[in-house]
Design goal:
By secondary structure, this protein is of the alpha/beta class. The protein folds into four domains: 4-108, Oxidized Rhodanese, domain 1 (3-Layer(aba) Sandwich), CATH 3.40.250; 114-237, Oxidized Rhodanese, domain 1 (3-Layer(aba) Sandwich); 252-355, 3-Layer(aba) Sandwich (Oxidized Rhodanese, domain 1); 374-467, Oxidized Rhodanese, domain 1 (3-Layer(aba) Sandwich), CATH 3.40.250.10. The strands form four sheets. A five-stranded parallel β-sheet has the order 1-5-4-2-3. Strands 6-10-9-7-8 form a five-stranded parallel β-sheet. The chain has a five-stranded parallel β-sheet with strand order 11-15-14-12-13. Helix 16 links the parallel strand 14 and strand 15. Helix 9 packs across helix 12 (241-258) and helix 12 (241-258) runs parallel beside helix 16 (330-340). The longest helix has 18 residues, at 241-258. The radius of gyration is 24 Å and the shape is globular.
């Protein structure tokens, strides 16, 4: 059967009319990060069975795939259809065809980053440069520095006096962090987006303190020749009942101004029962709170990260989202941003959660099933150790491979597995592995069809090897170029100055790209409430 085609104009009409559709770039993340349409998702063809179901949980959702002439799309369509998706199409002309009618963007999580720049340009979010911040911190004591990134990022590197307070927690914890209205608040991240959105969240929430963003974050701090701190672990604690109540009052006021819909259990059940719409259920609390208990069916998506990287949780543009928290602050503030980002979003009133049945009419998401005859194509760790002349090929992401892999294992690209397996030395069997064995198992049949040598996969993957007490090594062997992961210039401590400056220059140009593209459906709400 010839795959269905969809034109770039038809795709863009879905976005403009807010109709459900998911656009998949089935190349690896490296090429994706160099050029893609605004709402494209990075789902490499070799990882479709693992990555696609949580991003696109409804079988009937229209799914569109494209590449840039690599020849992946037909294979991607077949794999997506095998998962049970019923409306799959190829983008006519691929990436080149799309560039004739729409803007293409570099980097990752672009919708959120472009939106952050739009927020600053419209709301004139106050900020100060790294040198201005350093001078201010040197002469002032009544100031708090709140790092709006994930705790792991903060711990890797932070500016002096910074304390961890991820973006979705800012208003919730601000009256614990700065109980006095005279305290100045500086919000930072690694680059720009989370500091802009975090600062504007506190301003939108109407707190009395002076709030400023650290312009360009830790990148700007580094480029100005200032020293960062490392391995810090200072967090803003959970708020007292009084501080939490105060934060809730501020959050409710802003959410009402923006038009956030708060729903009860009955409305929630009706939304969940609508089979013709995709619905995402997201708990926006801190991961530690989520781990201690959460409503059935809700996935953890910490609010700040959800706004910063919505496409990592929500893959269907035009879908519905229901957010949950226990405090009435974090879900409302997160929803206020998602609404401005063009999403149809609801907040589940936290008092209704006990009335929501565990037997909600939620359809089963698509799921990959291992082949029936797994014995013939999989081996155990003990069998691998006893296998003579075996060559292990690792399909982990390249940073994971670099950190440690089964001794002797070579790295291979998933999308180019059929091509690069022919570069494996010897004539013995090839054993595919991946961190938990899933990606290896997904791709083993495709590999067996592409080479005459015996190919099997390691059951349980590299994790099973580690669990059995066996050592890893970090000597690298590259069957494929490691283009599977984009090297983010705002993460880690070894980034080139040119890459960091280039990233900032790119972000400054995003508002112009949005204007030229014309399909974002973003709308930044202005402050028009009476002063409190």
């Amino acid at each position: 059967m010839t795959p269905k085609l969809i034109t770039a104009h038809e795709l863009r009409r879905h976005w403009l009319n807010r109709l459900e559709i998911a656009l998949l770039d089935v190349r690896e993340e490296g090429p994706f990060s160099k050029s893609h349409p605004l709402f494209a998702l990075s789902v490499p063809v070799s990882e479709i069975e693992e990555k696609l179901p949580p991003l696109v949980p409804r079988h009937a959702t229209p799914v569109v795939v494209y590449d840039n002439g690599e020849g992946y799309v037909e294979r991607a369509v077949a794999r997506i259809a095998a998962l049970g998706y019923s409306d799959v199409a190829i983008l006519d002309g691929g990436l080149v065809g799309y560039t004739r009618v729409g803007e293409v963007y570099r980097d990752v999580n672009v919708p959120s980053k472009a939106f952050g720049e739009l927020v600053e340009s419209i709301r004139h979010t106050p900020s100060l440069s790294a040198k201005e911040a350093k001078d201010f911190l040197d002469r002032e004591r009544n100031v708090v520095v709140l790092d709006a990134r994930r705790f792991s990022e903060y711990s890797t590197m932070s500016i002096p006096r910074g304390r961890s307070c991820p973006g979705g927690e800012l208003l919730y914890r601000i009256f614990e962090a700065a109980p006095s209205p005279d305290t100045t608040v500086i919000v930072n991240c690694a680059g720009r987006t989370r500091s802009i959105v975090g600062t504007q969240s506190l301003i939108n929430g109407g707190i009395p303190n002076k709030v400023m963003a650290l312009r360009n974050g830790t990148i700007g701090w580094t480029l100005d020749g200032l020293e960062l701190e490392h391995r810090k672990a200072e967090r803003i604690p959970l708020p007292s009942p009084e501080a939490s109540l105060k934060a809730r009052q501020h959050a409710e006021s802003w959410a009402q101004h923006v038009g956030v819909s708060v729903i009860d259990g009955e409305k929630f059940r009706r939304l969940a029962a609508e089979e013709e719409r995709t619905l995402y259920l997201l708990d926006v609390r801190d991961p530690e709170e989520y781990a201690h208990g959460h409503p059935k069916g809700f996935q953890n998506a910490p609010g700040g990260q959800l706004v910063q990287a919505t496409d990592e949780w929500v893959g269907v543009r035009g879908a519905r989202i229901v957010l949950y928290d226990t405090d009435g602050v974090r879900a409302r503030m997160t929803a206020s941003w998602l609404l401005q980002l063009g999403w149809e979003v609801f907040v589940l009133d936290e008092t209704s959660i006990t009335t929501v049945s565990d037997n909600l009419p939620r359809p089963e998401p698509p799921k990959w099933s291992a082949p029936v005859d797994t014995v013939a194509i999989s081996i155990t760790v003990d069998e691998l150790r006893a296998l003579p002349n075996a060559n292990v090929v690792d399909l982990a992401r390249s940073p994971v491979y670099r950190q440690g892999h089964i001794p002797g294992a070579s790295f291979a690209s998933g999308p180019e597995l059929a091509r690069d397996l022919h570069g494996v030395d010897g004539t013995g069997p090839i054993v595919l592995t991946s961190p938990d064995g899933m990606v290896a198992g997904i791709n083993v049949e495709y590999a067996r069809e592409s080479i005459s040598r015996e190919v099997v996969y390691l059951s349980g993957g590299t994790n099973a090897w580690i669990a059995a007490g066996h050592a890893l090594e970090n000597e690298t062997r590259w069957l494929s170029q490691p283009i599977d992961v984009y090297q983010r210039p705002y993460e880690g401590t070894d980034n080139a100055r040119e890459a960091m400056q280039g990233y900032l220059d790119w972000e400054y140009g995003l508002v112009g790209q949005l204007a030229n593209d014309g399909i974002s459906c973003f709308h930044v709400v202005r402050e028009s409430r009476e002063s409190r």
